[in-house]
Specification:
With 130 residues, the chain is mostly helical. It has six helices and no strands. Bound molecules: heme C (HEC).
Length: 130
């Protein structure tokens, strides 16, 4: 009888320890910020050229609009060049797929609603170099 209750206690302790180990290990997974807080919010409050527009251009545009022979003769690697496309209306016309403009990014899906919102806000603010 005594022996049985001892082993039951031992099993309980072992079970508790394994439970703690399993939970603390799996917390590596649940601690991931993008899983706990999926990126549903789009920050269009603090929109800047360097912080909001450039990252979008780098991941979607400069593979074609960069280098020594940029597509369409349009380089999007310097502020001055991007500002010129913003001011002549082609930047917004192309990314928003407005009729009369060549839809960009070429042969790829339209930019995300969030990226478009940031670009729009930056252009509407006068396309500042910030
Ligand atoms: C796969 C290559 C490629 C990618 C990626 C690409 N472009 Fe283009 N882009 C072109 C080509 C080629 C042209 C010349 C016009 C044409 O052929 O449609 C062009 C033209 C343009 C024009 C002029 C449009 C007009 O109607 O005159 C703008 C502005 C532009 N691109 C902006 C962008 C932006 C912003 C991105 C990223 C969101 C982008 N492009 C991504 C290849 C690309």
């Amino acid at each position: 009888m005594k022996k049985t209750s001892n082993s039951i206690i031992f099993i309980w302790i072992a079970a508790c320890i394994s439970f703690v180990v399993i939970v603390s290990n799996s917390s590596c997974y649940y601690d991931k910020e993008e899983i706990l807080y999926p990126q549903t919010a789009c920050d269009t409050v603090t929109v800047t050229y360097s912080g909001s527009v450039v990252p979008v251009l780098l991941s979607n545009c400069t593979s074609c609009h960069g280098g020594s022979a940029p597509s369409g003769g349009i380089s999007l690697t310097t502020y001055a060049a991007v500002k010129a496309q913003a001011d002549n209306g082609k930047l917004w016309g192309s990314v928003s797929h407005t009729a009369g403009f060549s839809p960009m990014p070429k042969n790829a899906s339209k930019l995300t609603t969030c990226s478009l919102a940031k670009i729009k806000k930056w252009i509407d603010a006068g396309a500042p170099n910030n």
